[in-house]
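User: Reviewer 2 asked us to show a designed sequence for the structure in our supplementary figure. I'm pasting the structure tokens here. Could you produce the per-position amino acids so we can include them in the response letter?
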């Protein structure tokens, strides 16, 4: 079973759309222990510096970008389960994305889709997929084939 308290999301920018915020809040209620840190929009280099200050050396870093590895929901659940409850930090860039040096620092890069999404929607999608992964590993009814 996934231990959500081992996961953290660092996201650039505020959620401005109410419907996205409501969706995020709904899933966060279902994922007690998931930490979400929001970083103010800035230049990519300033954002990178702030992110590097937040992450610790013992964390497994996953950056989100369109060039990352794609998974089905079940594959992602399995990958997370196989991480053996390691501390994992997911990083979602802002409008300009993440620096290449930050992406290179990541243990792996995740693509939610070959499509490009606004960072607000990417955050909602990631949180929903973490909830889905949790229910898949628990054998719950949320994920349907």
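Assistant: Here is a per-position design you can include in the supplement:
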């Amino acid at each position: 079973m996934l231990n959500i308290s081992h996961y953290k999301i660092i996201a650039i920018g505020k959620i401005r759309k109410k419907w996205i915020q409501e969706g995020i809040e709904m899933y966060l209620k279902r994922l007690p222990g998931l930490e979400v840190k929001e970083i103010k929009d800035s230049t990519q280099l300033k954002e990178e510096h702030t992110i590097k200050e937040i992450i610790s050396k013992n964390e497994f870093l996953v950056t989100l970008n369109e060039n990352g590895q794609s998974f089905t929901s079940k594959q992602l659940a399995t990958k997370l389960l196989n991480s053996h409850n390691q501390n994992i930090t997911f990083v979602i860039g802002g409008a300009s994305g993440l620096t290449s040096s930050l992406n290179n620092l990541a243990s792996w890069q995740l693509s939610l889709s070959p499509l490009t999404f606004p960072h607000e929607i990417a955050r909602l999608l990631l949180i929903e997929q973490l909830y889905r992964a949790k229910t898949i590993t628990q054998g719950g009814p949320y994920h349907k084939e």
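For the response letter, you might also mention the following. The chain has a mean pLDDT of 92. The chain has one domain: 4-138.
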